[in-house]
């Protein structure tokens, strides 16, 4: 759907020259080959394009029989081929070298003269040249540009036959693999007369990548094609093609090339496959000879140059191909009084296409880009139109009626000549078309039949015919079209205004511009104009005086502007995919953008659609590169935006394949819905949400307060209750604009218990208005609330409806439908159980009958319920539902003690039953006894003792307290039972043994002291278990200084010695493990460097094989790991904790071991502090025993050594996400290590050091 739009037109004057046959552009130099007479005597003129002074022309004479010339950009030379020699010209240094001999590759001593050359072409690299001779010989030469010598590599004859396969019973060659239409065309062509060319020489065309070359030659009066591969081996040849001409052009690097067929009845462009088979045929509008075919370097545009001696002008037609159709997009006409000499495509990027033409007076460079010609009009009759140019036809598609990709259309305009420009009216359904003869016609396209309003020949008063003399058309106002007019000679361009007053046109010259204009366009929401000249952006106001706004770093390829919030914003897209707002670069990787309504939409190279509201806040955030509020969705990669369809949320986009698709934009949808709700158009809003498939929560979440204030209008806006049910089903807690539709609006407030609140309000209103009409919606609301009583609530409304059935039997159908609604949320089983709990037999029977259950399954049970009173009925229902605790409540009210106890025992309800049975009864005591025994069997001894104590079973309570080691309670119970001293002593010793086994040493020592009156045993127990502080307390209490100074002191000093040895051993172990860990990490680093060096030395052709082998190995390991047994997994897990030297996971096992050592070392601090204080109480600080100071220093040294190693063992890199490649290899096993062991222990900050100890010099020295 794209057309070619003229971006700029640049003219350069040349010396008035005639008889030019060949032209070559070599950078800033123009090489012209002129025939000085009617004979074959030529001269070469080289111009400096930037300084086309006649005195600065470099002339070369004595050149004869020229047949071709080319520019060799890789060597900076111009090559001219003649019949007997090659001429190499350096246009910069103005030197000339001639080559007229060559050597043979098999014998370089043999020198042969160049002669009888017919044509030649250089390969795309400029290293080889293929030459044809008059006798049919075809040769390939390599050129030494330093010595100016030729060496022949290959030679053959153009008439050599290609090897063909034999056809086996698949029909004749004329019919094989050909459609009926193709067969008919071939038969028709055989009856037509071929038009013979005046100069029918051999033509050569290279494929852009140099893999193939096609040769078009004369074979006994008929032309044929032959294709050679990169080794100059003949691989394909064509059949006889009637009317085939010598013009041939390969399409860039593709597998097709173009040729021409010219007969007495038609002129066609033929697209050939690489195998010389015809792929497509396209008829040309003008039935005149084609002199040149040229593709641009990307193969997007085919230029066709036609002329004959009869007509007064020649033409260059620019074609594009899409969906097997050839579209004529531009026609450049040249009069014979200033004829076209030559043309060429210039190197260009993927956005701009430049073609340079040479006439006798000037060089003209046309710069094009592909664009969409569309019109978007808002208002009462909004529409979106898109025009595709096809020669004299304008194919118009109404996007509002659905997309019709070309060559289909909704409206058709047929002009007499090919169209070059399309201009839409900014506010009305009018379009102006300008053809190649500069005739401007205006059409009304509002109706199904297109109406021509008027036309004007812009060049009627100016006979000079320059292609695209009038360009950059802009419908500047309601009745005025502005455009640029080129002068006769290159100079200042005039801006002309074409006013349309009633039935007449008036031309008014507005101003002049001395530079080439790239773009002119209206500022959206303004009457001013934006003008782009190079990289400068201007604003033109009503005074017609350009005012420069800013300059950009480079020339943009697309510019749009808008006036919003009183400020003008200019959007620019660069060829490097950078996007600018004014002169600030805000985005990269942008493929296309449009300004639609009050939105800016962009597509990215990665396949994303971005949308921004056009207001000051959004554009300021975007200028600050804040993308938090930018709408984003994924689309097909390579999509180009065309336009938006007014009054809809749809964006029209063209895919890379050429098909056109519509994208729905949630950003527009949400804004449209918000506008409807703000106007309280709830019925339209509901229909809009349904048609756009928008989540119905948006009705609430856009503005919760607005919805709740208008909930009655919302309910009444629903045409049927089912719409409200759909709304309730879709309702969810949370805000959808913070989850589903993020970036459509700013973050919205979360409303707690939103669903429950809305359901309650709607249910209350619907009950008051018409309970029966809305009953299905009310039941839906019960389940949407999703509370624990939803089934009960829904059954309440059905129960109420059943009561109304007694008055009006017709309501039974409504009750059945209401129950079916309930079944969509809960199963029939759940509903039947909930109905049973209502104890309403009529409701139970209704639910059972409508649940699809066999009557034999529920009728006997319901009859049984009818036969008993309410208490028994409740018991049977709860027992049936296996709600035994609830059933017990009703059984207690009417059953005997024996029945109750048996039921409790059967269902093990002892713990629950204790709260329902009256106290001080035998049944209660039996239950409590059973509960206590059950607790004791579960080793819950203290609880069991409490229960035994409550029912007066003190002996059993004492036994349970002793088992629970609750010694205070046990002593209390023994006093209550008046136990003998021996019994008390035995029980106390049992308690002491239990406390010792559970490491409750202080409590055991307290029993020895207070109740067994054996404090010495208590002291000895404390000494034995290293609880020195409590042992000292007991010794002090009884003034046993002898025990304090002998037993306790000796035990403390011995313990200090043990700890000193322990800490010393831990330090040695720590140093060994840390050293081993350092060695392992260093070995891994060295091995990685070695592997990397070996990998870099692997030849390139083996790298893929190595990579494949590695991948295969990894795949096999993964496969085998998935088959591991549990035993293997346990073995693998043990390896992670094994510090065996050489193990796979030795490094992480060492880290775990070092963590445990460090944690233990820092746990000993408070204990060592306690021991030191004890010794200090016995002796003066300066007379401390050596084993105490050694213990203190060894722990201090151990901890300081560990602290200094933390960075080495646990480097901060272990917490980083991205690490260097070497570090990745070193810590490759870290993922297998528990997170706990990846950082140092968290107990290293415990303060335990004693200042009095640290002040001693000997301690400081020991620590150091």
TrEMBL record:
Residues 1113-1140 are annotated as: Disordered. Residues 388-642 form the ELP1 N-terminal second beta-propeller domain. Residues 875-1024 form the ELP1 TPR domain. GO terms for cellular component: cytosol; elongator holoenzyme complex; nucleus. It comes from the Eukaryota. One of its GO terms (biological process) is tRNA wobble base 5-methoxycarbonylmethyl-2-thiouridinylation. Pfam families: A-sol_ELP1, Beta-prop_ELP1_1st, Beta-prop_ELP1_2nd, HB_ELP1, TPR_ELP1. Its main location: cytoplasm. Keywords: Cytoplasm, Nucleus, tRNA processing. Residues 1113-1123 have a biased composition (Low complexity). Component of the elongator complex which is required for multiple tRNA modifications, including mcm5U (5-methoxycarbonylmethyl uridine), mcm5s2U (5-methoxycarbonylmethyl-2-thiouridine), and ncm5U (5-carbamoylmethyl uridine). The elongator complex catalyzes formation of carboxymethyluridine in the wobble base at position 34 in tRNAs. Belongs to the ELP1/IKA1 family. This is Elongator complex protein 1. It comes from Ignelater luminosus (Cucubano). The lineage of its organism: Eukaryota, Metazoa, Ecdysozoa, Arthropoda, Hexapoda.
